[in-house]
Amino acid sequence: MNRNFIFVVSILGLLAGVASAWYFGIEHPAQPPVFRPVANPYPTAIYANGIIESDQAGGSNITVFPEVPGVVVRVQVSEGQSVAAGTVLLTLDDAVQRANVEQLRAQAEGAGALLAELRAEPRAETLTIAQAQVDLAAANLKAARDQYDKRRASLELDPKSISKDVVDTAADALGQAESALQLSTRQFELVKVGAWSYDIVNQTRQLEALRHAHAAASALLDKYAIRAKVAGVVLALNSTRGSYVSTAGAYDAYTGGFDPLVVLSAPQDHLAIRCFVDEILVSRLPAPGHIRAEASIRGTDVKIPLEFVRVQPYVSPKIELSNQRQERVDLRVLPVIFRFPTKDVRGAYPGQLVDVFIGPQ
Length: 361
What we know:
Elements lengths: L1 H23 L21 E9 L7 E3 L5 E6 L6 E2 L4 E5 L2 H26 L3 H34 L6 H30 L3 H26 L2 E3 L4 E6 L6 E2 L4 E2 L6 E2 L2 E4 L4 E9 L12 E7 L5 E9 L4 E2 L1 H4 L9 E10 L11 E8 L1
Antiparallel strand pairs: 1-12, 1-17, 2-11, 3-5, 3-8, 4-7, 5-6, 7-11, 9-10, 12-16, 13-14, 13-17, 14-16, 15-16
């Protein structure tokens, strides 16, 4: 029985081997490629790596950093949203700065009220009081003079009728009354003149200083509302409500670095491609008026005819393209900028890498 079992298993193994050999020997046709490999569209061309970015007169994308630190309390835009110049993107907590503005406003109003008071001097009530003091001093002087005259006349008629000490005391009282009248008269003249011009100038300068301080504090308060300086499209928001941001940007817990709070592109009716030509190939670039180029979006069959914009006349390290912190070889590239309309191109986004072929017309 064991021999029959071994014989059956051997026959089955032989049949399985024959079937496997037949199956794996069948030739299967190769699968067609998902997209055509990148190919040079021109008889002669220069190849370069490129990156899609905003189409603007200089630079790449627009990075927005806060000018003041604080906690984000509101996020008022979303990624992909088109914004006009002046649109508030995010708002930071401004409670302390708003209180400073109100304090300076109140101080400026107080300084203005004091300046108005100085310019309105003299008050009618103050003049009335000063005049009454003059009248009182004049009356006291008349009473003192009468007393003195009486005592002196009595002394002249009969020296024994009054002591000389009483006459001298009356004379002293008369002198004091005369001095009091002079003092009250000069005080009245001082009140009538009004505020001293130097006091008015000093208070005017203090008011101006407080107004400037209030304007500066108000301008700083406006910095807590982070606005778009130009019209564009929100590409990335790197912070959210409740996050603390500094003037260095938003802290990235994954990379340990700081990112722009918001990244904007220019309006996207056109996009630009910044391609990096190896310094060895720079001499083969056609003249600016005879450059034509085509870009291929990686992983697709999309081909984009490009319009030459400018050459950035500065050969820079390849680190800008590779985004590596260290390079073993100092490779340098020349940035060349092209642009293209986006209405007929799908799947093109800022930050995307493309292959660019540059040829002569």
